C-alpha cells in the first residue's frame, strides 16, 4: 500500500543524489557522528562524490568534525543552500544555520547538492520527530545503526531498529563501537566489555552486523582536531575498519 493511500507523506528522492543512507543510534555519545563522517570520507576515498547532512539538531558536530566554519551561500537559481566542502566531501549542517528560524529539518533538505553518488545523513540520537520526518519524507536506501556494547545502549538501539522497520526503511546493519581494544604494544585484541553485545543484538533483530570500530584515543583526538582518522591516517587499522564498513553500505 502506498504512503499516499495510508495518508502519510509521499517519500521523495533528493535531486541529483543517487543513494541516501542514514546513520542513527539509540543513544547519544556512542560514536554516531564520528562514524557518519568517517563513512562519508571512506566512500569519497573510493572516488565517489559524497555529501554529508548533519540532521543532529540537538548537537550538530559535523562542522567541527569536518573543520568547517561559516555560513552557506544561497544558490541564485532556486534559493537552495550551497553546501560547504572539505576533504572533497560536501557538508551541510544545522550548525551552519544557528540563528535561522526556518523549520530546521526542512531547511536541511533544501540543499543544492549537485551530483552525488552518496549522501550520508547524520541523524539525531533516539527515535524522535526528526528521524520520523526524514524517514517518511526522503527515500532512504537504508540506515546504519551504531551502538556501544553496553546493555543500556543496546536497549535503545533495538528501539531504533524497530522504528525504522515500522516506516519501511531498510536496516543496512549494526556497527559496534568502542568495544574492541587493540593493545598499542602487542596488538592483542580484546573486547573489553566482555561480550559482543551488538553482534548478539543484530542476530536477535535479524539485521546484518557490519563490523567493529576499536576504542582508540587517536579516533577521538583526530576528530577534535578536525582531521578525521580516515583522512589523517588513511592506512591505519582504525581507518581500515571504517572503510570496511563503507564497502558494505
Ligand atoms: P554521537 O554522535 O553518538 O553523540 P560522537 O561521534 O560525537 O557520538 O562521539 C562521542 C565521543 O566519543 C567523541 O568525543 C568521539 O571523538 C569519541 N569516539 C567516538 N568513537 C570513538 C572510538 N571508536 N574510539 C575513541 N573515541 C571515540
Automatic annotation (TrEMBL):
Keyword tags: ATP-binding, Iron, Iron-sulfur, Metal-binding, Nucleotide-binding
One function term, GO molecular function aspect: metal ion binding
Gene Ontology process terms (BP): iron-sulfur cluster assembly; mitochondrial respiratory chain complex I assembly
Span of the signal peptide: none
Coiled-coil regions, chain positions: none
Family label: Belongs to the Mrp/NBP35 ATP-binding proteins family.
Protein name as catalogued: 3200_t:CDS:1
Species for this entry: Acaulospora morrowiae
Shown segment, full-protein numbering: 70 to 318 of 327
Amino acid at each position: 500500500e502506498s504512503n499516499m493511500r495510508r495518508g502519510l507523506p509521499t517519500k521523495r528522492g533528493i535531486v541529483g543524489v543517487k543513494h541516501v543512507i542514514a546513520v542513527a543510534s539509540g543513544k547519544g555519545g556512542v560514536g554516531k557522528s564520528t562514524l557518519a563522517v568517517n563513512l562519508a570520507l571512506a566512500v569519497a576515498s573510493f572516488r565517489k562524490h559524497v555529501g554529508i547532512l548533519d540532521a543532529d539538531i540537538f548537537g550538530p558536530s559535523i562542522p567541527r568534525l569536518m573543520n568547517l566554519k561559516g555560513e552557506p551561500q544561497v544558490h541564485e537559481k532556486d534559493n537552495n543552500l550551497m553546501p560547504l566542502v572539505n576533504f572533497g566531501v560536501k557538508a551541510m549542517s544545522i550548525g551552519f544555520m544557528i540563528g535561522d528560524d526556518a523549520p530546521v529539518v526542512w531547511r536541511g533538505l533544501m540543499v543544492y547538492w549537485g551530483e552525488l553518488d552518496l549522501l550520508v545523513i547524520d541523524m539525531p540520537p533516539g527515535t524522535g520527530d526528526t528521524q520520523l520526518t526524514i524517514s517518511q519524507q526522503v527515500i532512504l536506501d537504508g540506515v546504519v545503526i551504531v551502538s556501544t556494547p553496553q546493555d543500556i545502549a543496546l536497549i535503545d538501539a533495538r528501539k531504533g531498529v524497530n522504528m525504522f522497520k515500522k516506516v519501511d526503511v531498510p536496516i543496512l546493519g549494526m556497527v559496534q563501537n568502542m568495544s574492541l581494544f587493540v593493545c598499542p604494544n602487542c596488538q592483542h585484541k580484546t573486547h573489553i566489555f566482555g561480550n559482543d553485545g551488538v553482534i548478539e543484538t543484530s542476530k536477535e533483530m535479524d539485521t546484518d552486523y557490519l563490523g567493529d570500530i576499536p576504542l582508540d584515543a587517536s579516533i577521538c583526538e583526530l576528530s577534535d582536531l578536525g582531521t578525521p582518522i580516515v583522512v589523517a591516517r588513511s592506512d591505519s587499522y582504525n581507518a581500515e575498519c571504517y572503510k570496511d564498513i563503507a564497502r558494505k553500505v
